[in-house]
């Protein structure tokens, strides 16, 4: 019997990436809200489970681990009927892995969470221009990836967990920098394609909440 518990928060992009994966695999799970904006991830009980105090975190029976990328790959390997979302083919998987590491290190860590920490967590009213440039650079990279071989999805011609990962952060980053359809036609088309998927419902509301919080915060970009 499947016994999954996901710890997360809907505005959190990596939580949404995992929720899209769970929906795609049609897996039932218990959802435990951990409000990182109220520092609930720093409670002794949560720290004991996850000393890195991040969401999302997954429990599968006695197994427990965190990081959205590790969670998505695990869920597909363990529960999917086929390998479509995380291909076994060495080259296809290498492309998916590259995109996942790119999301983790470049898009989320360098661009999205850096500015979000300033704006939402620390309440800073001035944000250095470099933080905006990091977002623009992330958009540039994704446009280039999609353009390289005219792929429909982020790691080739089939939908994978790399799409769930990147759409969760990019649909949140639009809170800071809107996507110019003339400069980023492939990126825009890919986002529209993702929005058409039934599993996108797992991303839509959380992204809306995230964008609303950023819009409410008053900050300016320092030149
Ligand atoms: N690379 C991680 C990032 C996880 C992460 O930083 N999550 C944020 C919320 S979006 C968090 O838990 N922040 C609270 C903290 O670090 O204390 C993943 O993909 O799961």
In the CATH hierarchy, the third-tier topology of the largest domain is known as Glutathione S-transferase Yfyf (Class Pi), Chain A, domain 2
Taking Cα atoms only, what radius of gyration do you get, to the nearest Å?
Answer: 17 Å
* H/E element order: EHEHEEHHEHHHHE
Helix content: 55-70%
CATH secondary-structure class of the largest domain? Mainly Alpha
Given helix and strand content, the structural type is alpha/beta
When the domains are counted, the total is 2
Question: What proportion of the residues form beta strands (DSSP E)?
Answer: 5-15%
Bound molecules: glutathione
CATH architecture of the largest domain: Up-down Bundle
Major β-sheet strand ordering: 2-1-3-4
Molecular structure report:
By secondary structure, the protein is of the alpha/beta class. The chain folds into 2 domains: 4-79, 3-Layer(aba) Sandwich (Glutaredoxin), CATH 3.40.30; 90-221, Glutathione S-transferase Yfyf (Class Pi), Chain A, domain 2, CATH 1.20.1050. It is built from 8 helices and 6 strands. It has a 4-stranded mixed sheet, with helices on one face. A hairpin with a 2-residue loop joins β3 (57-60) and β4 (63-66). α1 (13-24) packs antiparallel against α8, α4 (90-121) runs antiparallel to α5 and α5 packs across α7. The protein starts with a strand and ends with a strand. Bound molecules: glutathione. Residues 12-14, 36, 41, 53-56, 67-69, 104, 108, 113 line the site of glutathione.
């Amino acid at each position: 019997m499947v016994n999954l518990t996901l710890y997360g928060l809907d505005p959190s992009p990596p939580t949404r990436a995992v929720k899209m994966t769970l929906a795609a695999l049609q897996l039932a799970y218990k959802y435990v809200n951990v409000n990182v904006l109220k520092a609930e991830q720093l409670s002794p009980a949560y720290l004991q489970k996850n000393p890195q105090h991040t969401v999302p975190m997954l429990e599968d029976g006695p197994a427990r681990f965190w990081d959205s990328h590790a969670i998505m790959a695990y869920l597909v390997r363990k529960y999917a009927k086929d390998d479509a979302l995380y291909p076994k083919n060495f080259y296809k998987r290498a492309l998916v892995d590259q995109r996942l590491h790119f999301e983790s290190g470049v898009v989320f860590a360098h661009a999205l969470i850096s500015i979000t920490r300033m704006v939402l967590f620390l309440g800073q009213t001035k944000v250095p221009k470099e933080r905006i440039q990091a977002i623009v650079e992330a958009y540039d990279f994704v446009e280039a990836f999609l353009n390289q071989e005219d792929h429909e999805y982020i790691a080739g011609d089939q939908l994978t967990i790399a799409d769930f990962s990147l759409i969760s952060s990019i649909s949140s980053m639009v809170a800071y920098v809107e996507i110019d359809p003339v400069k980023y036609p492939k990126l825009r088309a890919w986002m529209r394609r993702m929005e058409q998927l039934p599993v996108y419902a797992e991303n839509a509301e959380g992204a809306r909440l995230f964008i609303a919080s950023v819009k409410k915060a008053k900050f300016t970009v320092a030149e």
